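user: can you give me the structure for this one chain? tokens are fine.
assistant: on it. calling the predictor now.
[tool input]
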Amino acid sequence: MSELVTRTVVEEAAPTGVEPPARDLHPNRTRAVIALARFEARELLMQIPVLVFLLLYVAYTGWGMFNGREGMDDYPALQDVDRSTQGAPLLLALVLFVSINRAVLRSRRHGTDQHFDVLVMEPWRRSLAHALSAVPFAVLTALVVGFEFIWAALKPGAVGHGSVAELLVGPLSILLAGVLGVLVARSIPFAFVVPPFIIGMYVITTLVSASTQGTHWVRWLAPVVTEEGAHPLPSDLLGRPAAWHVLYLVGLIVLLLCLALLINGGRTPRIKAITVLALAAMAQGIAGQAPGDSAALIAARAKASATPEKVQTCVTHERSTYCAYPEWTGQTADWAEVVQRVQSLAGGPAAAERLTVRQRVNASYGLESDSALDPAKAPGAVTVTTRWGGNRIPEFAVGVASVLVTGDETSSGEVCDARAVIIMWLALGSESHPLTVLRHLRIDDSIDGGGVALAPTNPVSMNAAQTEVIKKLLRKPRYSVIPKVKAHWAELTSPTATTAQVAELLGVRAPTGPGALNVKTCEE
């Protein structure tokens, strides 16, 4: 019996020694990098520090949107809102820097580096995947930033114009942190280097800032330059090179990424070409943002500060005129409501006086100088600032009342007598909770003893006796005080009237003490 044996002969070509490595023959290298980046992003999200700081960032932003700052967030200036989104992501960026650095060094800590040599993915592609793991966090930051800005822009009292370039800084800082974490890990592959690196960067930044005394081009090398402190300025007076700064950040991010890939073996022509382009983009961004304020911008700021009437639009409500910078013209009706409310309580000529309410801002010293405004010298001129809402409304009411009583803002700074009583009553008499507003207006946040009430220009000083009379008047129904104010307007607004005389004319018990009889009481 014979057996039939079937044999299959497999012929293989002999190796020639010039075949490309197996990893170069892999058809899905891009998909492999993306898959690894997704895996590393999930791993980052599972780390407690990253998750905690991410939740804190979202919660802090939400709390700021829904709670506001003393009501002023109801009237946001969008050219300030976009800058305010840049600071909060920095803590998340710092945590991602540390976490991504640890992720890159994971295989070294576990002693598995040698196993990667049998994989189809080159080491530099793994570095690229680690850098890309920061992208989901940058996208989430962009969504939070966009929602924060849109939330402010949709408010009825929103003014001004935002900048897309300013809004991109927060997400770009996240990408920069991720790329920097990869570069540090590939350059100095030791985990203990991270804390000294962070401390060293902080010390170097502080020393450079101190030695250069805040030079413009040096400050703008930082990832985030917020420039806060001054009252909101019109958009055309900001002078921030936001677009150039974004170009600088994009170039810096790509350059650092390319350096990390080159260090890790990715010396391909494409990466080298991208490195050159990134360096050129970063240099162009630095050159564009390096110059300080131009002569034209300085002149425009001086013009808007010293002669605002040349750049403002004026409208009339009732008997008074209201002049505002173009972006704030929609708020003139709100100013008019306060003026009419205060003026309705006044008597004599003040009840029918034609006021000129002019918006003013001191833009001469840039975005970080919150310098005080000099009082207007023109009769019947009232100053309103570019901040509105919250305590700014009763402060404006104090300014209106001061002008109605003294005639002009310059004279209101000399009120050291009993006229402070009638000024404060005019400003607060129509409030639903006048004593609470009085507490917020005073610098010491109290309603007892002497104090100073804020106004757009000159504040109003009051001694302890005058404070007691004001409190008693504010506790009385306004309809019982208004006829007496109108009937005795001349006596109440006289510089020679004492606090005791004012109390008697308005029908409240006269206070006792030195401040009740003296005419001049500023020093008390």
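assistant: here you go. Residues 1-13, 17-25 have pLDDT under 50 and may be disordered. The longest helix spans residues 164-187.
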